[in-house]
Design goal:
By secondary structure, this protein is mostly helical. Helices cover 60% and strands 0% of the residues. The protein is built from nine helices and no strands. It has helices at 15-30, 37-43, 48-54, 58-71, 87-92, 109-116, 123-146, 151-172, 178-192. Helix 1 packs across helix 2 (37-43) and helix 7 (123-146) packs across helix 8 (151-172). It is elongated, with a radius of gyration of 19 Å.
Length: 197
Amino acid sequence: MSTVTTAPRRQGRGGRARILAAAAQLFAAQGINATGMEQVAERAPVSKRTLYAHFRTKSDLVIAHLQDLASTGHTLESALTREDIPARDRILALFVLPAPDAAPVRGCPFIDAAAEFPDPQSAVHSYAREQKLLMVRLVTALVTELGCREPAALAEQLVTLADGAASRAMVLGDADYGRHARAAAEVLLDHALPGTG
């Protein structure tokens, strides 16, 4: 039985934005695969014709949703490209989950999407993989900037900690769970800095 509330359909502009907002709410609340396109249209509210005019397939909608999250700073990776905070602080920001608009706590949307689209050849899984590879490249650049020894290996360790903490935060429903991984990340960074360890 659907728990989606419907609203009167609105005409005019903003359909794409409403669809993405509706998809984000539904995907967070019940998962991607459990969310039907008809539910998204009802929540938006738009006609199914409008929905499919913007997003031909469910995969197209999911990828657009993930791109929207990344571009609006609602992912762990968003802090890595900020230039207003020091490199070390950008890395440690990986362990602070973006503030959820509402329960439940969600981890990394890219990991969640890859889990729901397990075929490595699927467009969604491929996009998620690209984002996780981008994450490690960004962290590698930051630890290189800090002068850390073996930056590629350290970056892999740090992103593994961040992804693990995000996943556990989701499973345990604890948005602050990253504090444990952050403590470990600080030790790794201190040990890797020149003249220490």
